[in-house]
Every structure is written in structure tokens, then in C-alpha cells.
Protein 1
Amino acid sequence: MCGIIGLSGHENIISDLLFGLSTLQHRGQTSCGMVTFDKLFHTHKGLGVISHVFDKDSVQKLTGDIGLGHVRYATQGSDDIINAQPFTINYPFGIAMIHNGNIINFNELRKTMYEENHILLETSNDLELILYTFSSELAKKDLKHLKVEDIFEAVTKTQKKVIGAYAAISVIANRGLLAFTDPNGIRPLALGRRQTDTGYEYGFASESSSFDYLGYELMGNLEPGEAVFVDMDNNLFRKICHQKERAFCIFEYIYFAREDSRMHNVLVAEERMKMGRLLAAKVRSAGLQPDIVIDVPSSAYFFAASLAEELGVPYRRGLAKNNHIGRSFILSTQKERETTARLKLNPIKEIVAGKKVVIVDDSIVRGTTSKHIVHLLKKAGATAVYFVSAAPPIKNPCVYGIDMAISDELIGRKSEEEIAKYLEVDALIYQSLDDLQELYKNEGFCYACFSGKYPVSNSLEYLQSVEAERKLNC
């Protein structure tokens, strides 16, 4: 999972680009980068968060009225600087590109790229495959008389060859800003515009909340397999290129997206409240009678608040969070995750002591953090701890851009009785997958991490190869 933004304006774009990218920092802290274009591409990128990578000198060099920004955590490829985005190439025209997602036919495409196009990839980042596939298709067109339809045809060929989940944004030098999604629309990409004295400016971002800060009007999310092109005069063109059945990632609603983002015409906060009400019914049917409901800050707030309201039980903030600690489930070793869990949260004893506590989290991945939270609450004096997961049991790794864990590390593969015993909870409540699917029936979501039903062909084969390689390298 990464965060991406692309803007096309009428004047120097860097301040908006930097500000907009900062609103997506939660989507990746491994590396970040930006590229702008005037007569040349100007690129700056590095390892770490935005505030560490960009300073006054680097920002001043990023001139131009069109550009891209990217924040990353690694799902395909190493954490090395060579894999940091954006990527640029000089032919045809010169193309810069960023993406969010994961390609599952990486090895096949890399082999084809070398054998058919004589291109040797320099990185282990799957963006390079998308970039070279698209550029190779675009180079087949009449470049002296390039039309928008030619660009869309190159996108269509790319979507047919590149299998997986991706949302990509690209600057084609002296031509315009291009964005496109995979045929199933698994990863999010929003389109926005802003009225100025000289006409509309357009932008793309992983989440609509970026547009709120920049003063853009949300035009909606790109559809599965859609491409949108903004030319150098800021004229907008749209086309569904290669579309299959929609399979939007349900985990965006559950965890990754900010609560103030709108995705596919709904507010993420409202969707989490709906899920919280479903959880309340399960707590009630289990015969639990808690004194208070608390959340694991901050992604579980709306689940917990609506659950408490439905039960008629007070909601309290029972845990204080250190916001400068990263997401523990994406750390590479068990020791790192345990250390992070200890530093991240601190119970407020006066609120939980002597209480039967429902603690709500967005999900349980390995269980490391959850077990630690239960220990903290009981040590702080809670008389009972009922752990509630807003997500169903995670039983299968995501192969579409969320690096949760390998299969053997997922605690959701155990029985609920075994999980409850490991967590040392007085009761364990999971969201029901059936209830979740009923809530979003006929809306086209990917539930593969819960159900094991992957919407893209060859996903299981790819998963098996990735897990075999990881175990070999352990």
C-alpha cells in the first residue's frame, strides 16, 4: 500500500504537491518522492517520511506546473533507495510514473520485457514493469501526431498485460497528466478539480481528503479499468479501457483510508459506523454486559463509537497513543513488532480500572499488538476485557498491495477459541464475513484476505511463490 498524488495546474505546483502528499503520509513511511516537469523532469526522493526527505533546497528545485508525489511502504521489492518512486524514462517523450498496488505476474513480465523489448530492469519494484510496458505500447504509435485515443489504446494494452492491482499516475512530457486503474479497480484513485481565474486545474490522489485540504472539488473515484488524461491545456478526457468485475479493497474502509475520505460516493467514517452497529448485535447476542467501550486509537474510533451508541454503553478513550510510532503489523520481525506495541499505547488507569471493558480494534493480524493491549488493560485494573475486531478473521495474505503477513503468521487461521486463549481475553468477537458481505451486496469488493477467494487469476500461484521465497530468505 502506498499513497499517490498527481496535479496539473496553471502555475508552479510544488507547494500544493508537497501539501497534498503530506495528507497521504499514513499510507507509507518507508520512502517518498516527487517529480515535477517544466522543460525537464526534476526529481527528489529518499528513504523515510516527507519531513525528513524534503528541505527548502530540494523543494526549490522542483519547478513546473505539473507533477507527481509518492509515499511508499514496500510490498514488492526491497526498501532500498533504488526502489523509491517516482520513476522516469526519457523515451517516448519522457515519462514519469508512480503507482499504488502490486503486480502478480512480475517474473513473467520481466522475462518478456527482456526477451521481446531487450529491456533489463534496474529495480525490483513492479512500477518499473508498468512504466516500461506502457512506454513500449505508446512508442508503437505515430508520435509526431499522437492523439488522446492513442494514449488510451496504450493504456488498454498495458492493462491486459499487467496483472494485479494498481492505480497509476503518469506525466507524459509536453503532453499531459495520465491516470489509470487495474481492470478490477482494486486500489483507490480519486479525481478532483479546482476552479481558478484561468480555468480548471485537475488532480488525482489515493484519497479524496487530499482535495479537501487543497480546495479541490471531488469528481469521484476512477472506475475499474478507467483512464483519465489531462492535456497541457487542462482539457479532461476519460475512457473505460479494459474493465472486469469490480473488486475494490474492503480494507480501505476498515483500516487504511482516512475517516474523512470519500470512496465511491460514501464517507469512510459512515461505513465504519455501519460496521460498528453490526458488531453491537454480536456483542449483545453473546450476552456480554460491558461497563465501557474503548477503541484502539485511532482507526477504530468510529467502530467503537457506533457500537457503544447501539448498546447504550458509554464510550471512553481508554488508551493514549504515541502518534510518532509506526504501524506495527508492517514491521519485519516479531521483536520489532513487540517493541513497537510496548511504545505505542498507554492505558488511562482511572478510566478502565474496575470496569468490564469492550476494546475495539480495526483488525487482528498476527495478534502481537492485541495480546499486549489486553495485558495493559488488565494490569491497569480492568476486571474483564472483551476484544472486538471490526474485521472478520484474516486468514489469507493480501497479494494486491497490503503486506500483512505470510499465511503461517496469521492468527486468524486458528480457531476463535485458540485465539481467545492466546490473547487472554474474557471474550472475543469478530465481525461476521456474511454480515459484511450482506452490507455491501452487489457493490463489488475484494474480501480475499478473509475468504481466500482472490478476484484476479493466478493470485494463489503468485502467493505460493512469494511465501516460498520469504521462507527461504528467513
Note: The chain has 17 helices and 23 strands.
Protein 2
Amino acid sequence: MAGIPFVTEFYFEYGRCDQLSPLIRRVIANNPSPFTFTGTGTYIIGTGNVAVIDPGPLLDAHVDAILAALGPDERVSHIVVTHTHLDHSPACTPLQQRTGAKIYSYSPPSPDQFDGPRLEEDADDNFRPDHIVGHGDIIAGDDWTLECVFTPGHMANHMCYALREEKALFTGDHVMGWSTTVIAPPDGNMNAYMASLDLLLSRDDKIYWPTHGTSIDDPQNFVRAYISHRRGREAQIIARLEAGDDNIRQMVATMYVDVDKRLHPAAALSVFAHMQDLVERGKVSCADKPTLDASYHLVG
């Protein structure tokens, strides 16, 4: 991960509402973990009739804090979700029950059977949006405008949202300032993820606000570093294959030797996503369809 200018320290308090810009406030949920960093950052957009981006996990105290952040003449009119992992979307239900706001999201994926390890923050299979949004759609309030920017890869239904008034992009888990993003099959897809990073390079957003961690203030160079990192991981995989490793778990033990071992199952899934991509591109082969435990070999 060398070369990515991560920011891992910033000041916050759980449950406190911080005014980040004229139109952006944030409340951080008390759900820290190796996957969520300090916790889920829920954003409140605009004034008067406001949007809430990523209400977070099922924590009553967090929903209370979101509502306590509103002024006496404010109400939640829109609930907007970047993707449906358990640290992002479950609080939509109690927040909607208490506000009547409609929920906006890309189509949730169908539950998928998978015999590999599940991540701590798995899919929210109970999520039900009121409005399905697509790339380029506009969600608007009294003094704010969100443009939908479709970025599949981390999850097939991942959507970023651009606040046009401030040229700010809410990146969910697609690009995070504290860590690289886990791409976990079956719903994560490396080829789609790389294409989504390329899409961000074509935009002129001035600042990113991820759901975990603090802002990314030089987004174009940050995305270039993300792309370079992924290409580096691919080169590492090819090097391990050349060295005789043919199993993903062997590769993870070497490639992620300096990473918290609690993250090794997630790392194995990211290597698996790279391997699926390499097989699709004809650079690597395996006897049957790619799996976590398959044997892989370089082609040619």
C-alpha cells in the first residue's frame, strides 16, 4: 500500500454532529472494526429538507444522534444509500419509520450462495428501497442536488453521489482515505471496480467524502494511487505464480505478511477477485471455474 497518501487520524466524537461545509454535516456511528475503521460516517446534506447518506448499522443511539443533529425547522426528506452492506443500510428502516422519508438506492443484489468466508460487514438482505436510481439520475432538495455516479466493484450495487453545489463526491466504500477497498466475490468484481476507478478519473470532483474516515482532498491523484496499488497487487500475484505458489491462501500469507491477520480472509477474497479477472483475461488458468481453493497457473 506504499504510495497511497492515507489519512488515519482525524478528530471526532461518536454521536456528535460536525459541520464539514456549508451543506455537509456528519455523525459517526460507534461501530469501529478492522473493516469500518472508526465507524460509519453518516452524512446530512443541505438545510431544511435534508438528505441522509448511509444511515449506518442498526444502532438506536446512532439514529437518535442523526435526528438530534437536525434544526427545529428541519426534516429528513430523503434517505440515500451507497450500497447495502450491514454497516451502511440497516438503519434505513428505523430512520424511515421515524421520519417518513423515502429511500433511494441502486437495485439491491439478489442473495448469492457462496461457500467461501463471509465478511464481518456482509450484505443487508432485508434492504428495500422506495426508489431505484441509476447512473446520471438526479436527487434534489431545497438547496442541494445529488447526481448519481454508478461505481460497481466493491459491491454490484455501489453508487456514489456528487453534491453539485460543492463539487463533492460521497464515495461510500469505493474510495476510502484510510485504506484500500476490499473486493469480495461473489458480489465484488475486480474488472468492474477498475472500470469504476477509471470513471472517477474522468470527473472533476474537488473533494471526496468516504463513509469511513475523513475527506480526500486531492482526489484525482488519490485515485491514480489506488489504481497503481491494484496493478501492483496483480503483479505480486503473477510473481507468486512464477515462484511456484498455486493457491490463494499461500499467496496471502506472503503478500499480506504485514497486514493484521484478522483481515487475511478479506485479503484472500481480494486476491480471488484479482484471480477471477486474470482468468477472464486469459493470463491465468485453472482446471475448473475459479474458486478460493483452486490451483492456478500462468498461461504461456
Note: The mean pLDDT is 93.
